[in-house]
Amino acid sequence: MSENTNPRDDGFTIAGKTYHSRLLVGSGKYKDLEETRLATEASGAEIITVAIRRTNIGQNPGEPNLLDVVPPSKYTILPNTAGCYTAEDAVRTCRLARELLDGHKLVKLEVLGDEKTLYPDVVATLAAAETLVKDGFDVMVYTSDDPILAKRLEEIGCCAVMPLAAPIGSGLGIQNKYNLLTIVENA
After folding, report:
1. For residue 168, which of 31, 83, 118, 144 is within the disulfide window of CB 3.0 to 4.6 Å?
2. Domains: count for the chain
């Protein structure tokens, strides 16, 4: 870190690339692509997540394409595996994203184990992460708040480990501060 004591001023580095904004925004839930573009620009974010199974980035020619309004020349597109419930589906989805994005390697891996809570299937997540890292991907991985699993994901080469702090959409805030602190301390 530089002499500046505010870490936000030093940037945020993922897989060797430094960003000025620490905010990652999603591309879903907007009424149309124009609203997506406007919200993304207003946010100041440099990274936008894209659910490959739900968002057209070229796999459906002739349909509106997110990349026409949120170009990879301006933003880091972060393909994610939202909606995948097996390691195989997640790996296939990441490979499709890489093909559609001309060799793009950075992905957000999430393999869900429960449709209601959206908790990750940690066994399938670990298997998919191992395959993707071996396949040359830079993997940002969504997982449980288990410090042992987080360390294992780091050891196999994931560039970021993103542990669940509370059930998605619950508004409960951080539920297990000790586990999250342990993950950070062990990183």
Report:
1. 118
2. 1
